[in-house]
Amino acid sequence: MNHIMISFIGCFIMGLGVNAGYVPVHLFSTGFPGIGILTLYTLNWSPGIVVFALNIPLLLLAWKRIGRSFVIQTVIVAGALSIFLDLLDPIRNWVHPPLWLGNVIGGACLGFGSGIVFSQGLTSGGVGLLGRLIQLHSPNLKMGTIHIAFDFVVLILGAMIMDIKTAFFTFLASLIMGRTMDFTKSLPHLIARFHPR
To answer: What's the pTM?
Structure first.
């Protein structure tokens, strides 16, 4: 149960990154949170509900391919992320970072939060869950690389809905997120290497 509680911390950090980094500077993130933010901008829909709804097909597939226990834990973690995305939305009105800082805050927080979740052997759903399914066939593919590859789809969609400049800065944030995610995920191994029991 401790790994789920630690994953909640990761979800909180991700929700913080979206609401304190991306939304105040009108970036749209990538992956499933990006789709949720785009629906917020265009349809005024709740990003948390949209993200959770998009996870349902992947969860059904994971039920067959990975197992019931993993899916139940993923539903819990994905639900926590959806709650934090909406619960922390007042922050959008409290902070007003410049574009470059919102870019860094959003990318680093999403990467750090995702890395915490992945380091616990879990996923918050979305591209992370899709990446986990892909890694069943291609275990050498890094999760951050998978994220960047699939994020191009959201970037193209965002460029069509918003503009090229916003899509470009969102892409830079996704690079920060991917690299931070891989570094965070590897931290337990690095710590164990330098501090053996």
So the answer is: 0.80
| Distance, CA of 195 to CA of 109 (rounded, Å) | 26
- Number of Cβ within 10 Å of residue 4's Cβ equals 14
* 138 SS3 class: coil
Rounded to whole angstroms, how far apart are CA atoms 7 and 113?
Answer: 8
Alpha-carbon gap, residue 30 to 45, rounded angstroms: 17
Nearest of 72, 51, 60, 52 to residue 1 by alpha carbon: 72
Alpha-helical (H) ranges within 66-163 are: 68-87, 91-94, 99-119, 126-135, 143-161
| Average pLDDT per block of 10 residues along the chain, 197 residues long | 86 94 86 85 87 87 84 88 90 91 93 88 80 80 74 86 88 87 74 56
Contact 168, 101 (CB under 8 A): no
Check residue 130 and give its pLDDT. Answer: 83
Single-letter code of the amino acid located at 29: S
CA–CA dist 121, 67 (Å, integer): 13
Distance CA 4, CA 192 (A): 21
Angle between helix axes 126-135 and 47-65 (nearest 10 degrees) is 20
In the chain, DSSP finds a helix count (H) and a strand count (E) of 9, 0
